[in-house]
Prior knowledge:
This protein is of the alpha+beta class. It is built from 18 helices and 21 strands. A hairpin with a 3-residue loop joins strand 8 and strand 9.
Amino acid sequence: MEKYKSFKSVNSSWQIIQFIGLFCLCCFLVISCSQTQNNPDNTLKIETNTNRITIGTTLKPRTIDPADAYEVISGNLLYNLGDRLYDYKLGTTELVPQLATEMPEISKDGITYTIPIRQGVTFHDGTPFNAEAMAFSLKRFIKNSGSPSSLLTNTVESVEATGEYQLTIKLKKPFAAFTSLLAFSGLCAVSPQAYTIGENQFQPDTFIGSGPYKLAEYGTDILRLDIFENYWGEKTKNQGIDIQIFSSSANLFNAFKTGAIDLAYLSLDAEQMTNLETEATGQGWQVISTDSKTINYMVLNLNSEPLNNKAVRKALASIIDRKLLNKRVLQGKGEPVYSLIPTQFNSYKPVFQENNGDGNFEKAKELLKEAGYSLENPAIIEIWYPANSTKKQLTASTLKAYVEQKLEGLMQLELNSVEAATAYENLDKGVYQTFILDWYGDFIDADNYIQPFLECTKGTKEKGCEEGASQFQGSFYYSDRMNQLIKQQRQEQNSEKRQAIFREIQELLVEDVPFIPLWLDKDYVFAQKNIDGVGLEPTQQFPFWMIHKL
C-alpha cells in the first residue's frame, strides 16, 4: 500500500493500469490461497503435457535403505530403484536372472552357490558394478543389522567375489528356498562409494543403486523418481514417477476422483474401493486387482489362561466364520484362508476348514464344556487389534457379537486396541492373550509363512518358546516335532517330498492351534482412463516402468 501511495503524482491513465494490475494480482492470490486451503496434502496436479506419472498413497516410507527397509511401500520403491541377483518374470512367479546371468550352480550338499555376474552395469553415481560390489551389498545387509538382516544372518556363512564377475555364497546349512530369497527387494546392489558397512550405519532418505529409476527427491509428502539414462536393462515407458503421500485415505480417495493424481495405490478403505469400482464404468476408471500373499491371522499366547488349554484354542478356531468376515468386514475385498500358507502355493492345505469349518458353534460349545467352562464360569479371552486398523477393529467387533449370540455364555470376548508400534514392541513379552495381525511375505516360498511363525530355537514343552520365531510373534509355541519338520522342508531339494512335509506341518498347526488364519488381502490399484501399462505382480510388486500415458 505504501508503494502505491508514492505514485500519486503520476497521471491518471497510469494509475488505472496500475489498479488493474494490482486487482489481477489480488485475484490470483485469493485463488491460490483458496486452492491451498482446500488441498491439505498439497496434491500435485497431473501434467498432461508430460509422461511423468503421479501415484497417490497413504503409506509413508520409514526408510529406503535396503539394509533396514522392511515395509510394503519401501519394498516397492526398492523394487523400482534397484536390481537384485534374481527377479521374477513379469506376470509370473518364475525366477529369472537379473544382475546374475544364470541361475546359481549349487553344490551337491546344498551349501555353496556359485553365481555368474552381469557385466556392463553401472550404479546411479557412475560406479561400475561387479562381483565385489554385489558382495559388498550383501555383507552390508548382514552386518548393518537392520530390520530384515535376519533373512541372511540365520542362513549365510560367507559371501565372496571369487572373480571379477563371479560371486560365491556359502550357507550355514542347506536352504531349498535360498534362490527365491535372493529376489527379496532389499537384497539389491548398492554403490560401495555411497554406503558404508557398520552396525546401524543407515541412510534412510537416499538411494544409489543400479535400477531403471534414480531417486531425485525424498520429501515428507512427495517422492520423485527420475529415469536412469544409463540403465543396462529395459527402458522405462514414462519420464519419471511422482509419489504423493496423503495424510488419510479420504484425501487419497478425493484426489483420485477429482483427477489430481494418475493412480491410487494403498491404502483405500473397503467402502472407498467399492465406490470407485461402482463408478468405474461411467467414469472410465481402471480397476486392477490381484490376490495378494498378505495373510491376516490371530496369534494366540499359549502361556496365558485360558489359551494354555488346547480345547479353548480349538473352540476359538471353530467359531471363526471367514465367509461372514469377508462379506461384512471386507466387503468382498479379501479371500478366506484356512492355513498360514496362502492359497496360491501348491503346498496349501485348508486344514482349518477340514477340521473346524466356518462358524461351527456346536463344536465350540462341546469343546468348552469338555474343558470345564459354563455360563457361571465362561472362558474369558482378550482380543487385541491395532488401533489404526478399521478392518481389524470391525473383525474383533464381529467376533464378539456372534460369540454373544451363539455360544450361550460359555465364552466372553473382551476387545482392546493399541498402537501397532507399541504392539510390536510387546508381543514377545507376552503382554497380549491374542492379537489380530497381518504378514507380508518376504519372498515367494511357503517356508516364509511357516518358519517365521512356528520355529522355536530355544524352549521346552512346559515353559514354551523362550527364543525364536514363535516367541517373537507372541505365541510362545514350542514343538520338537514342528522344529524337525521345519528343518526337513528347508533342506529337502525334492519338490514333491517338500510339499508332503508342508502338509504334515499344516496338520500339526491345526492340531496345536498357536495361530488362527483369517483371510488373504486383495491388492488394488485404480488408474485414470488415459493411463496404460498398469499391472500388479503375483509377487505383490508394482512395476512402475511399464506405466505410461496414452
